[in-house]
Write a structure and sequence with these properties.
The chain is α/β, with parallel strands linked by helices and 505 residues long. The chain is built from 17 helices and 13 strands. α12 links the parallel β7 and β8. The chain is globular and about 65 Å long.
């Protein structure tokens, strides 16, 4: 699910600092880190590489690194913590007081803005650039641009173009697309009338419209943990109380879900049943029935994100299918299977919510582009999308097999069954310590801490099987793990720099 952010390009593989530049090495290094901090590639509270690590990575002296870090401190971008190192400065924010009757885990109000832009900015990397294991989209080479171009030409040829361009279109979305989506969802055994479908600008807007319709600031909302990081950020920005529900291989922790619902009376539970992000776990039928029972008992709606549905079997367990869109609402988009840039998504809602959600849509974006919706409708009607999905799934199966082999050869293991698009990989060490060194080597990774409501150290990282087949990536990761382990060992045994700075500063 690809969501809002300014279109700043991600850093390319780090170029060496230039000794021929009219700027000193210190100034160049300080600027490199300043850019990353200002563009949120380094989140508030993130730890910078140690002086020793940074000097080795950038081929400069420890004196140069210390001087660069001094400049960053003077600019108010970082702070030094005694015997702990250098960290990106945090901006204090008020923390909500716990309410009487709270149960663990507590809802939270983060002390700093949750950083999800690190991954999002990577969405804007130039096509043809090195595949990035941390991203959530298919490689450009996998996409069928010809199919999309042909579909768009067919729905706009001759006198068909003018009606699509001279007015805003229908508030709920293009009728042809909604009919095609109704037929598509019937493949899941989900009987939904076209009038129950609302088109959106991608799945992000779909999630946002439902949330804004059903909740208001101060309301409690249940969310899987781990989960897609932008969801935590989005809900927090709306002033909602986020209640993280631990996610296991079969679904949410039912005991904690029940306790949180009883204590906080949430109005909504946001979840991914099919190929959960980041673990790719699948909701089991037994868990699904229990979740629906809890929703009825505690009177909350379920917002089911089916963004990866095209990569999974049609018969996979879905809450909306079991519930028949009573307490459930399904959202999805075509960004994961067709193209990220067309921004065509949908909401399948209970009849009594359709008008309310449509009104919210009118207040935020008026309508959605009918040309793109009709082009995708054509792909659905003629079976083009189904056949393309089958080809992609076969490619993904082969990519996954190769990636799993490379990961294990590099000394990593999998914390969840490898399936779908994502792998939940255990590296054996805090992956945030690997993020910047890997970025310097030209590889964007997705550290496990990003996928938790309260960012905390994690040995896990999410990889995209389609973008992690390069053996060079796993060799680079293995090298950085050894380097970080050696650095930690030096600090433990009292080795320090010649400057007498903190052991891991």
């Amino acid at each position: 699910m690809d969501r809002h952010i300014d279109k700043a390009p991600p850093p390319s593989p780090a170029s060496a600092l230039s000794r021929d530049s009219d700027r000193t090495l210190t100034e160049q290094l300080a600027q490199r880190f300043a850019d990353r901090i200002r563009q949120n590639w380094l989140a508030p509270g993130s730890r910078l590489p140690s002086v020793r690590e940074c000097a080795k990575t950038h081929h400069v002296s420890s004196y140069t690194v210390v001087a660069a870090y001094d400049q960053l401190q003077a600019q108010g971008l970082i702070e030094a913590r005694s015997q702990r190192g250098y960290y990106v400065r945090q901006t204090p924010r008020a923390v909500a007081e716990p309410t009487p009757g709270d149960t663990r885990p507590h809802p939270f109000q983060p002390s700093t803005p949750i950083d999800a832009t690190t991954l999002i900015r990577g969405l804007f990397h130039e096509p043809g650039a090195r595949p990035m294991p941390g991203l959530g989209t298919l490689p450009p080479a996998w996409l069928d641009v010809g199919m999309l171009g042909s579909a768009l030409r067919r729905v706009t040829q001759g006198d068909k173009l003018l009606p699509l361009t001279l007015h805003y279109g229908e508030p709920a979305g293009d009728a042809r697309f909604r009919r095609a989506m109704s037929m598509r969802l019937s493949e899941y055994q989900l009987k939904v009338d076209a009038d129950q479908i609302i088109t959106t600008l991608g799945a992000t807007q779909a999630l946002d419209l439902v949330t804004r319709t059903l909740l208001q600031a101060g309301d409690a909302v249940l969310v899987d943990e781990p989960a897609w990081p932008v969801e935590y950020a989005r809900l927090t920005q709306l002033g909602l109380r986020v209640l993280p529900v631990p996610r296991g291989p079969e679904g949410p922790d039912l005991d904690i879900l029940n306790k949180l619902a009883k204590a906080h009376s949430p109005k909504l539970y946001v979840t991914v049943s099919v190929l959960h992000n980041p673990t790719s776990a699948m909701l089991s039928p037994g868990h699904a029935h229990q979740v629906l029972r809890l929703a009825e008992t505690h009177n909350f709606h379920i917002l089911e994100d089916d963004i990866y549905g095209f990569l999974a079997p049609a018969h996979a367990t879905r809450l909306c299918v079991l519930d028949k869109l009573q307490r459930t609402i399904m959202v999805g988009s075509f960004s994961k299977i067709l193209t990220p840039s067309w921004r065509v998504g949908y909401i399948a809602a209970p009849p009594q919510l359709v008008e309310r959600i449509t009104n919210t849509k009118l207040l935020t974006s008026l309508t959605t582009p009918p040309m793109l919706e009709q082009a995708i409708a054509l792909c659905l009607e003629q079976g083009l999308l189904r056949r393309f999905s089958e080809r992609v799934t076969q490619q993904l199966d082969a990519a996954r097999a190769r990636t799993v082999q490379l990961a294990r050869q590099a000394g990593c293991s999998f914390a969840a069954e490898p399936q779908g698009l994502f792998g939940w990989v255990d590296t054996g060490m805090d992956t945030e310590r690997l993020t910047i060194p890997m970025l310097d080597a030209g590889w964007l990774i997705a550290p496990g801490a990003l996928f938790h409501a309260q960012r905390r150290p994690s040995t896990l990282m999410r990889i995209n099987f389609a973008s992690s087949q390069d053996a060079k990536f796993w060799k680079a990761l293995q090298a950085q793990r050894k380097r970080a382990t050696a650095s930690a060992s030096s600090a433990r045994f009292g080795t320090s720099t010649s400057l007498g700075w903190p052991r891991d500063s």
